[in-house]
Write a structure and sequence with these properties.
2 copies of one chain form a homodimer. Chain A is mainly α. The first copy, chain A, has a single domain, classed as Up-down Bundle (Methane Monooxygenase Hydroxylase, Chain G, domain 1). Helix content of chain A is 84%, strand content 0%. Chain A contains 8 helices and no strands.
Amino acid sequence: MNDRAEHIHKAFDEELRQLDNRLAEMGGLVEAQLAGAVEALRRGNTELAEQIVARDKEIDALDIEIDLFSVRLVALRQPVAADLRTIFAAIRISSDLERIGDMAKNIARRTHAVSRFPPLATTASIASMARVVQTMIKQVLDAWTARDTEAAADVFARDTEVDQHYASLFRELLTYMMEDPRNIGPCTHLLFVAKNLERVGDHTTNIAEQIDYAVLGTRSAERETHDPTNSLVPEAEGG
Amino acid sequence: MNDRAEHIHKAFDEELRQLDNRLAEMGGLVEAQLAGAVEALRRGNTELAEQIVARDKEIDALDIEIDLFSVRLVALRQPVAADLRTIFAAIRISSDLERIGDMAKNIARRTHAVSRFPPLATTASIASMARVVQTMIKQVLDAWTARDTEAAADVFARDTEVDQHYASLFRELLTYMMEDPRNIGPCTHLLFVAKNLERVGDHTTNIAEQIDYAVLGTRSAERETHDPTNSLVPEAEGG
């Protein structure tokens, strides 16, 4: 390798590292946002909720920054094979993290509506579902940093757990609504919160897929984003 | 331009046309799926609903095909500037179309649960909301084919209409639930259907953004995916 080629090679490696650093930064922010949103909802802390909503702009800005940086990288360095795949994977991971950020914002936004009602037992179930998806985010970000496809596979397995949590929360919320119409308002909001958490789980599995894509070059069909409650008919009515 | 350069140039133009054709094909399929899903839900036609669910695989396959084709195009032709942006835009549009396909599938999946109840007046409101988002999909796909940024801007304007439909449906459904607990089951499903349609609207505006990006090179901050019902407290309770 001549000096010039070596120089470009080093510069490109450094740029790929920068890309990873930005993704890690974004991932950390998204984790904190989701934790904060669930905390705000549980405690009825509307002030914290507003902070979470305001901070989402930082995540959006990071997404655009990663996106523009990646496109520039492709145009300037004209990478191929694994390097090109890594850049495409980074763009998609950034987009999934941005959407997880949106979910956190949506959850935070419901704090006000939910806080006006006496606390429901459900918020404990929501907190435990949130813990599972938070672990998944952490796991998948570590798997990306290490380019560890086995750790990525674990994330898929855990998503089943999230779906189970969601199905049981859905039933729980429907029961509360039928018991007392005053529960309908807050329970409707909590249904959407549960759905948001379920979608966070789906986004982490999308990220896990990108690890396979970057490392192995495989691109599996989009995994089913199956909502286990789609055809649920509450017993009290469906008979 | 020498013969070889001209040959490559022509081949690349042809490939970009192929990319557009695939996107148009995918767009047509997605439009048909959404129309079918809403039809199935309205008529309680579970057979049609099952067909819609089954056909979603075709959309997923097209998304992956467009994706792989695009990445190959970048690696082989090493495009820059507007050509490179067009390819990145195509990848993102394909991903948004794939998600609209998922929304259609989710709506179709709720047909069974909803069909077990007497029809609610709400399904007419859902059908009229669906008509708005279907028009948006058509508009944005035409705008992409023509690379027409003004037509793309119209899509954003129309999304406000979708948000209004959604907010009014949300209130309507909550009212039904409070009137009669037997409505809670089907109304919960219809709430998610309304939410899915609202998300389809958001995806069409994402596509509109990609037209700006491909044509002008601008990449605006992700538009607010604001759910107008986030902080809604039903009057009957919030008081």
